[in-house]
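Subject: Sanity check before I submit

Could someone independently write out the structure tokens for this chain? I want to compare against mine line by line before I put it in a report. The sequence has 82 residues.
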Amino acid sequence: MFKTWYVIILLIIVVLLSIVERFFILQLRGYLGERKVVKVLKSLPEDEYRLLNNVMLSSQHGLTQIDHILVLSYRVLFANLQ
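---
Independent answer below. Compare away.
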């Protein structure tokens, strides 16, 4: 009986650690991916492009966050990364 509970508790701990690990790996991948995008966008000529990062906009429905806005003389590009 004692061994059964020990195995069940051990399995629960392993599952919880697996879930936590996946969450942090996804967060890390997202952060690193966004840093790569910023690096590429910042390499564009500053006299032709204006880069805005992490822009918060307010509307009647609340706040929204846009990861990147790239302003050109003839268009505006928005990028929200997942």
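---
OP: Matches mine. For the report I'm noting this point. The chain is about 50% helix and 30% strand.
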